[in-house]
């Protein structure tokens, strides 16, 4: 498995986004870490190498955050792990890249208001046909993953009313949110080709569904999550994603059909997860019945128990989930921090410190 994390660059005093990603990436190269541009100039992305267990993943993610934060600090910025800018302007310039400039020309405001940060988890599935079928099996669990990872309630200085406002902003793209059910890899390719031919997408890389067969790697890529406040929360969700994919591969190999979940039901479940996160009720897409979010997490754990046992991760994941349900996700933390400080700027400053939780001190 591997993980991509997207981060914001913010002013250390005001908490406002800073348009410095090119300079930060150049500095990061000098420090020995490779960062990538994202659509907005206030964003960067880290990529882990291929990892075989959660301990290795955790080590790589901690080091990537540490060095990315060091590169940001040398350019007068701080690294912030939150799904949307808690404060700042509505529109931000796109990064210095031919591709991103083409997106800005083609999609206008949609591209210019896209300073949002997610976490993408890749799990190795070598066969392309199997990758498409795995997506069919995993898609009913996407709202639960979103509820666990929701970390973007604040936007432009106010509480949006949603635990994951990033999800709502992201949903404006033509190929975003939960994917439809696909009978085969050919059916998937046919739909993507139609979208490109209609000029809805520049190319296959703009397929932004919450789960997809990767456009450039032999993996299933789960993209539903907000970037999470801490590395330990990222590792927890990544381990659950890996177990979900393993469970789905086993079901495909046994000839089991995926759950018959209507896309409309899944979209409502996703919207409810974006609104409420771990608070209140969620919708179980398989039964179309409302259930407490904590119960949805229990059902997910039951679903992947055998895979977690195979990985030797069950006890660790169970303990981490109990802790997460007790203390809340990133959205709950942000709202509590805002209630205590009554200052979005102070929330951002505290969140930048939390972004580096358990990281080694920054190099001088």
TrEMBL record:
<dbReference type="InterPro" id="IPR014746">
    <property type="entry name" value="Gln_synth/guanido_kin_cat_dom"/>
</dbReference>
<dbReference type="GO" id="GO:0016874">
    <property type="term" value="F:ligase activity"/>
</dbReference>
<dbReference type="Pfam" id="PF04107">
    <property type="entry name" value="GCS2"/>
</dbReference>
<keyword id="KW-0547">Nucleotide-binding</keyword>
<keyword id="KW-0436">Ligase</keyword>
<protein>
    <recommendedName>
        <fullName>Putative glutamate--cysteine ligase 2</fullName>
        <ecNumber>6.3.2.2</ecNumber>
    </recommendedName>
</protein>
<comment type="similarity">
    <text>Belongs to the glutamate--cysteine ligase type 2 family. YbdK subfamily.</text>
</comment>
<dbReference type="InterPro" id="IPR050141">
    <property type="entry name" value="GCL_type2/YbdK_subfam"/>
</dbReference>
<dbReference type="InterPro" id="IPR006336">
    <property type="entry name" value="GCS2"/>
</dbReference>
<comment type="function">
    <text>ATP-dependent carboxylate-amine ligase which exhibits weak glutamate--cysteine ligase activity.</text>
</comment>
<dbReference type="InterPro" id="IPR011793">
    <property type="entry name" value="YbdK"/>
</dbReference>
<keyword id="KW-0067">ATP-binding</keyword>
């Amino acid at each position: 498995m591997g993980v991509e994390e997207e981060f914001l660059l913010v002013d250390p005093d005001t908490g406002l986004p800073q348009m410095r990603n090119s300079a930060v990436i150049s500095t990061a190269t000098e420090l020995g870490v490779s960062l990538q541009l994202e659509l907005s100039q206030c964003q960067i992305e880290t990529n882990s190498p291929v990892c075989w267990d959660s301990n290795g993943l955790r080590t790589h993610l901690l080091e990537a955050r540490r060095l990315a934060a060091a590169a940001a600090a040398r350019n007068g910025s701080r690294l912030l792990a939150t799904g949307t800018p808690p404060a700042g302007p509505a529109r931000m310039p796109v990064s210095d890249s031919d591709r991103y400039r083409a997106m800005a020309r083609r999609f206008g405001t949609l591209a210019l208001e896209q300073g949002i940060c997610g976490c993408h988890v890749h799990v190795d599935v070598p066969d392309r046909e199997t990758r498409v079928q795995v997506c069919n099996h995993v898609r009913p669990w996407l709202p639960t993953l979103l509820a666990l990872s929701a970390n973007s309630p604040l936007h432009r200085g106010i509480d949006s009313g949603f635990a994951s406002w990033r999800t709502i902003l992201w949903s404006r793209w033509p190929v975003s949110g939960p994917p439809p059910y696909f009978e085969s890899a050919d059916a998937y390719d046919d739909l993507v080709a139609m979208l490109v031919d209609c000029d809805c997408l520049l190319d296959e890389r703009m397929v932004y569904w919450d789960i997809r067969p990767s456009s450039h790697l032999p993996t299933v890529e789960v993209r539903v999550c907000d970037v999470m406040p801490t590395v330990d929360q990222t590792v927890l969700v990544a381990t659950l994603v890996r177990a979900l994919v393993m469970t789905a591969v086993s079901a495909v190999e046994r000839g089991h059909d995926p759950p018959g979940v209507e896309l409309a039901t899944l979209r409502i479940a996703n919207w409810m997860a974006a609104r409420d996160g771990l608070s209140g009720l969620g919708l179980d897409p398989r039964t179309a019945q409302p259930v407490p979010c904590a119960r949805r997490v229990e059902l997910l754990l039951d679903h992947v128990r055998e895979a977690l046992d195979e990985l030797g991760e069950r006890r660790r994941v169970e303990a981490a989930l109990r802790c997460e349900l007790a203390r809340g996700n990133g959205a709950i933390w942000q709202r509590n921090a805002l209630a205590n400080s009554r200052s979005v700027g102070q929330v951002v400053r505290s969140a930048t410190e939390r972004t580096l939780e358990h990281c080694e001190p920054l190099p001088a």
